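Hi all, long-time lurker, first post. I run a small reading group and we've been trying to get comfortable going from sequence to structure in the token notation. Rather than ask abstract questions, I figured I'd post a concrete chain and ask someone more experienced to write out its structure so we can walk through it together at our next meeting. Sequence below, copied exactly:
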Amino acid sequence: MAKARITISLEQDQAERIRQHAERVGMDVSAYLVHAATRQMAESDAIEEQFAEVDALIARAEQAAGVLPAEPAPELTEQERRDVEEALGLVQGRDRQGRRPGHAA
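-- Answer (accepted) --
Happy to help. Here is the structure in token form:
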């Protein structure tokens, strides 16, 4: 397989750290960088694959929201507003007293 050359620019201290890390694991800089980039790409691909269904669901919801009529939102009653705030607090990890579970008051 033909090889391609890629030139990168980086700060001197970054280059030295990369050289040191590559040396520590017994690799030349080129092989070390290829290994690191390949590993990062595999992780990114796995994350994208894992969340593909969620991303598709969000895209469908956004598309559906774009065709909704532009009606003004109804005013909430005070009780509805408190219910929404409580639900958001639970989603954000707060209990009914506004504390995050597992954290000191």
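A couple of things your group might point at:
Helices lie at 12-24, 29-50, 52-66, 78-91.
The CA atoms of residues 34 and 73 lie 53 Å apart.
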